[in-house]
C-alpha cells in the first residue's frame, strides 16, 4: 500500500543451503538487471570475510540474470548455476524460506511502502537467522553454535523476547 495505491515490491533472497542462513536484500518497485547486480555485489561484499565463503550461486532463468550479473558473481569469487527451465522444485529451500517469511510475517501486516517492507524483512531475517529453530540443524538457528548441556530451570528464570513488533515470541534464559 502506497500513496499511489497497491503496488508490488520485490526483494531478492540469498540462502546458504548448508546453514539455512538467509540474507534478504533491500526492496525495489522495479527489479531489473542493474538492481540484481547491485544486490549481488552487496551480498558478495557482505560474505567475503567469512571462513566458508559462498562458492556457487544457484538462480532461476529470469531475464534479470544477464551477462552483467554473471560477471558480477564471478568478480565476487563465485560461480553461477542456472536451474533448468520451469523447475521450482530444484530451488525448494529458497521457495520454502519465501513461504515462511510470507506466512509468519508479511501476511500479518499491511505494508506501507519500501521502507516498511525493508524494516519487516530485516527484523524477520534477523529473528530467522539467530533465534528460529530449524529441523535440518537439530533445532538450532542458522547462526549459532551447538549449546552445551543445559540443566532444568525454573519458570522465573525464563524471559520472553518479542520480535517483529510482538508478532513472534521467543523464550530464553534470563541473564544472571
TrEMBL record:
- Tell me one GO molecular function of this protein: nucleic acid binding
GO BP terms: namely: DNA integration
Q: Where is the Integrase catalytic domain?
A: 1-149
The protein, known as: Integrase core domain protein
Source species of the chain:
Rubinisphaera italica
Q: What is the lineage of its organism?
A: Bacteria, Pseudomonadati, Planctomycetota, Planctomycetia, Planctomycetales
Amino acid at each position: 500500500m502506497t500513496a499511489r495505491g497497491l503496488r508490488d515490491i520485490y526483494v531478492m533472497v540469498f540462502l546458504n543451503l548448508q546453514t539455512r542462513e538467509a540474507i534478504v536484500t533491500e526492496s525495489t518497485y522495479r527489479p531489473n538487471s542493474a538492481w540484481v547486480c547491485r544486490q549481488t555485489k552487496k551480498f558478495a561484499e557482505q560474505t567475503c570475510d567469512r571462513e566458508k565463503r559462498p562458492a556457487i550461486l544457484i538462480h532461476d532463468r529470469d531475464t534479470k540474470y544477464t551477462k552483467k550479473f554473471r560477471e558480477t558473481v564471478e568478480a565476487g569469487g563465485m560461480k553461477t548455476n542456472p536451474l533448468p527451465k520451469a523447475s521450482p522444485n530444484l530451488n525448494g529451500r529458497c521457495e520454502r524460506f519465501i513461504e515462511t517469511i510470507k506466512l509468519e510475517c508479511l501476511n500479518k501486516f499491511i505494508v506501507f511502502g519500501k521502507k516498511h517492507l525493508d524494516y519487516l524483512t530485516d527484523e524477520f531475517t534477523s529473528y530467522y537467522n539467530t533465534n528460529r529453530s530449524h529441523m535440518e540443524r537439530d533445532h538450532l538457528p542458522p547462526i549459532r553454535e551447538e549449546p552445551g548441556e543445559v540443566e532444568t530451570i525454573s519458570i522465573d528464570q525464563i524471559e520472553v523476547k518479542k520480535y517483529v513488533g510482538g508478532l513472534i515470541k521467543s523464550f530464553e534464559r534470563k541473564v544472571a
